[in-house]
Design goal:
Homotetramer. The chain is α+β, with helices and mostly antiparallel strands. It folds into two domains: 190 residues, Fructose-1,6-Bisphosphatase, subunit A, domain 1 (Fructose-1,6-Bisphosphatase, Chain A, domain 1), CATH 3.30.540; 131 residues, D-Maltodextrin-Binding Protein, domain 2 (3-Layer(aba) Sandwich). 31% of the residues lie in helices and 23% in strands. The chain is built from eight helices and 15 strands. An eight-stranded mixed β-sheet has the order 4-3-5-6-7-8-9-10, with helices on both faces. A five-stranded mixed β-sheet has the order 12-11-13-15-14, with helices on both faces. Strands 1-2 form a two-stranded antiparallel ribbon. Helix 5 links the parallel strand 11 and strand 12. Helix 2 packs antiparallel against helix 3 and helix 5 crosses helix 8. One manganese (II) ion (MN) binds next to strand 5.
Length: 336
């Protein structure tokens, strides 16, 4: 059995100039995840369910656990010498850590501390998403928001924790995707899936079909395509939608499938946030042989302009993402 800590150190030896800093940073995330996991598991017993009466920077109701998870992860990262600052779904502005050590720290972290938080009160899987970049401001100077507004392609590591029937941490540093299952009796994440790849043919599509009437034409056509019978591609596909990006993505990664959140009437730019939801998941998807686009552009090639900017997202098995892209392109030609 191999623990996450051992695995990261072993992998680091593959990089000749590695300094151990990324290893230390990932271990801070691991600690944050253990703390969040502990409290999520006891959620029904503690007074931590429900809303806290605060609205987050995107105008969505914050839950007590959103606030708690944000605090736990922020504290774990601030305690280290490797992180210059963080950006979070639950923080309006970037948080620039204080002191000399932060001025010299090499990395910035973006995070969605609790993803799918509307599921928490009903005991359905939720997650944590993280994305790590090298700072762009020179070492020794205070970082600014610009350090966080980098293309997804520049990520040096990304991953998620899924708090499901078991808790798993899944990450990439650009050398494949590796997954670790938490053993509560040991207090350790243990390697359970090395070098995860999407199955060649997926059979699952995940989308909130309650928004169907307002979907763009290409998406409606893709849904129809998923539902049509065809032996060669194994259609009709199954529809599965949890409403936690992390959990939906995780299932589709292991089983083969596509997750879609297009633009809708309520969310004309899409609902998901580019920097701490779409980009880290897109990095993982590409590293597992899949694809992630906003319908026309690769997610990882989008130049961000705002910290909390949203984007449509089509992510999963490559052939499925390419099919929906094709139908989006054809439907846009037909309207002119
Ligand atoms: P968060 O809880 O971090 O705000 O994210 C919720 C996101 C995502 O996880 C999920 O897939 C999507 O919102 C669900 O949205 P709908 O309820 O509109 O389907
Ligand atoms: Mn989220
Ligand atoms: Mn969230």
């Amino acid at each position: 059995m191999q623990t996450l800590g051992e695995f990261i150190v072993k992998k680091e030896h593959d990089f000749p100039h590695a300094t151990g800093e990324l290893t230390a940073l990932l271990s801070a995330i691991k600690l944050g995840a253990k703390i969040i996991n502990r409290d999520i598991n006891k959620a029904g017993l503690l007074n931590i369910l429900g809303a806290n009466g605060v609205t987050n920077p995107q105008g969505e109701a914050q839950t007590k656990l959103d606030e708690f998870a944000n605090g736990a992860l922020k504290a774990a990262l601030e305690a280290r010498t490797e992180v210059a600052g963080i950006a979070s779904e639950e923080e309006e502005d970037v948080v620039i850590f204080k002191g000399e050590k932060a001025k010299n720290a090499k990395y910035v972290v973006l995070m969605d501390p609790l993803d799918g938080s509307s599921n928490i009160d009903v005991n359905v899987s939720v997650g944590t998403i993280f994305s790590i970049y090298r700072r762009t401001t020179a070492i020794g100077l205070p970082i600014t928001e610009t350090d966080f507004l980098q293309r997804g392609r520049a990520q040096i590591a990304a991953g998620y924790i899924v708090y499901g029937s078991s808790t798993m941490l899944v990450y990439t540093t650009g050398c494949g995707v590796h997954a670790f299952t938490y053993d509560p009796s040991l207090g350790e994440f243990c390697l359970s899936h090395e070098a995860v790849r999407y199955p060649t043919q997926g059979h699952i599509y995940s989308i909130n079909e309650g928004n169907y009437i307002k979907f763009p034409l290409g998406i409606k056509e893709y849904i129809k395509y998923c539902q049509q019978e065809d032996e060669a591609t194994g259609r009709p596909y199954s529809s599965r939608y949890i409403g936690s990006l992390v959990a939906d993505f995780h299932r589709n990664l292991l089983k083969g499938g596509i997750y879609m959140y297009p633009e809708t009437a309520s969310y004309p730019q899409g609902k998901l946030r580019l920097l701490y939801e779409c980009n880290p998941m897109a990095f993982l998807a590409e590293q597992a042989g899949g694809k992630a686009t906003d319908g026309t552009r690769l997610i990882l090639d989008i130049d961000p302009t705002e910290l909390h900017q949203r984007s449509p997202l089509f992510i999963g098995s490559q052939s499925m993402v390419e099919k929906v892209e094709q139908l989006i392109a054809e439907s846009s030609k037909n309207t002119f």
